[in-house]
Structure formats: C-alpha cells, structure tokens
Amino acid sequence: MQTEKKMRIGIIGAGVIANKVASILSERWQTMLYAVASRDISRAQAFASRHGMPKAYGSYEELVSDPDIDIVYVATPHSHHYAHARLALSHGKHVICEKSFTANAKEAKALIDMAQAHGLFLMEALCTRFMPITRKIEEVVKSGIVGQPRLLNASLCWNMPDIERIKRADLCGGALLDLGVYCLNFADMCMGGDIVSINSCA
Question: Which CATH superfamily is domain 7-125 in?
Fold first, then answer.
C-alpha cells in the first residue's frame, strides 16, 4: 500500500481534454484530483462531481489561490495558455500546461524564466513525447545504429470539421498549434541539436 503524500492537482478549464486527462490521473496513486475551475461554476461543479473532486471554482484566480493545491494543469485554449500558466506560477504553483505551450516563443521564454526564478516545475503536456514507441525511436536514433538522420518527413491529419476553436484566429486556431506541434516535437527529439532555421509553406 502506497503511503507517500499525493500531489493535489488543480485543473484550469473543464473541456474535452481536461476530462480525458482527469480520467487518466484518477487512476494514478501519486495524484489526487483536488479542484477544477471554469468561468461557469455549474460546469466546474459538474466536472468535479464526475471525477470525484472535492472542490470546484467559478474563477481561475480562486483556484490558484487555494493553498492546498500543489500543481496546476492548464487545459484552456492555446490563446490563453500564457496568461493562465503565468497566473498559476505567480501564485507559487507548479504548472503542467497543455500543448501548445504558448502562442509564440516570447511567451514561452517568459514562462520558463518565471518558473526558474521561483524554483517551480513547468512542463508542456505533450503526450506523444512520453509514449513508449516515441522514446524507443529516440533511443535508437541517438544510439547511432541507423546513422545520422539528415531528413525527417512527418505528417499528421485529423478530421475536426465542427470544432469552433480550430477555426478562430483569436483562439490560436489552425493546424500548426493543434497538430503540427506533434511533428515538430518528434523532429526535435530525433534530429537533436538546436534548430538553426525554419522554413514553412501552407
């Protein structure tokens, strides 16, 4: 029987991804789903009830102000990741932020600098990075057994015709931040080294 203290998790956002992640976290002995926040308190309450969470908040500020929360999982639209992760960090919370981490590199650097300055854990929740097959591919490539990779061609398609946020520029919609990040992250893992330049077309 595990006796170690569980990490108490607070979730910002009560959408589809948050529900999926909460279902997974509920199976882990290391974590406790402690609180959820949504701009709609009734939605937060329904989420909390569904996942057996003791607290539900109608504002994100209330959640990050809760002294019993150890780590905050940000599961809002891409356009809001920076503001919500920053809010959590400013209240001394460790943060796991759903991909895409931020809308741009400037925001990402600001969050990283803030977390480092306060000794806080900060990570992008990019599930494919931790899949066994992905880790194995990275291991094989880095071992040199297949030589030095010179070219990587990656594509990922998903049918999402009726998801409103994908179509809205103000929510950082579009394929790049929603799907393209998987390909870019995989390329970074396999090719290694710093990215010197990026060229793209659409």
Answer: NAD(P)-binding Rossmann-like Domain (3.40.50.720)
| Tens digit of each residue's pLDDT (9 = 90 or more) over 9-60 | 999 999 999 999 999 999 888 999 999 999 999 999 999 999 999 999 999 9
DSSP string, the chain: ---SPPEEEEEE--SHHHHHHHHHHTT-TTEEEEEEE-SSHHHHHHHHHHHT-SEEESSHHHHHT-TT--EEEE-S-GGGHHHHHHHHHHTT-EEEEESS--SSHHHHHHHHHHHHHTT--EEEE-GGGGSHHHHHHHHHHHHTTT--------------TT-HHHH-GGGT-SHIIIIIHHHHHHHHHHH-S---------
Overall pTM > 0.85: yes
